[in-house]
Amino acid sequence: xxxxxxxxxxxxxxxxxxxxxxxxxxxxxxxxxxxxxxxxxxxxxxxxxxxxxxxxxxxxxxxxxxxxxxxxxxxxxxxxxxxxxxxxxxxxxxxxxxxxxxxxxxxxxxxxxxxxxxxxxxxxxxxxxxxxxxxxxxxxxxxxxxxxxxxxxxxxxxxxxxxxxxxxxxxxxxxxxxxxxxxxxxxxxxxxxxxxxxxxxxxxxxxxxxxxxxxxxxxxxxxxxxxxxxxxxxxxxxxxxxxxxxxxxxxxxxxxxxxxxxxxxxxxxxxxxxxxxxxxxxxxxxxxxxxxxxxxxxxxxxxxxxxxxxxxxxxxxxxxxxxxxxxxxxxxxxxxxxxxxxxxxxxxxxxxxxxxxxx
Length: 359
Prior knowledge:
Layout: H1 24-44, H2 50-68, H3 75-83, H4 91-112, H5 118-129, E1 143-144, E2 150-152, H6 158-173, H7 180-194, H8 201-215, H9 227-232, H10 234-247, H11 250-289, H12 296-304, E3 307-308, H13 310-315, H14 321-333, E4 338-342, E5 345-349, H15 351-358
Antiparallel strand pairs: 1-2, 3-5, 4-5
Helix pairs in contact: 1-11, 2-4, 4-5, 4-8, 5-8, 6-7, 7-8, 7-11, 10-11, 11-15
């Protein structure tokens, strides 16, 4: 049956696709993407405190991935919410932080048991949306353009959707002799085409990308995120998805994802170098100007909490309240921090780090 945009695509083909995926052109692009990933994996080890790296880069991914879905907040709002109470944040900021929470949960799960399952998909979507996101049961889901015209109608029926997800699971975990990055491109398309939830599919799918790289041991920490690349090439991204659906143009789609992986890996590697340089310079400046207050924990705290507060130094047992306050003011005097008062709260902002992450 011919594909019709306004009718449920219940005939969505299972995986693997019945044609050659690893063309000469695809394999050439795989080489570049794999090399960039390997270099990124090595760069990740430059910062011993991996939680710092995951938090700083992961928060930007959460913001950009949500922005694709028109959920827009600022880095300052995010850091302020993390420094205070998430409950006080605006709705968009809360939703972005839930994305980060879902990513962290998925990462912990895959590290303990490297299997991507339908249950994990549901758990990720549930955290993002903050209510039980089971598989779609009600028909009528349709993806439309700005003129409310149908672009794509995903499969209908819970049993059918679950069967397609089970096929996707088998494809992810079985050895078809495909390069893992080719599998990632195919997996990403198929999850988006199945569209198993009423909402949160795009963000869930982007989290699955990074979890797959962890599962395949291509990365050890979740620091490669495609959201900025997808925002910069948004039209090409959605056109590529449609071209696979309507014309089985897998080659162009896979190449698009591979180029994105290579470019993003290179950009992220450079960002890690910049974070490391900022940490080293901060460390040396404190040693030179304020040797009596220097500690490794202090430097890490300033980079884990871009919006730092007295409480964070107390929690790390760096200093008690009054002494911690003195430390932060001294760090401001030598140009490492900038104090900003918002309402009753006083923040000491690591502008150098925020500048690095914003680029």
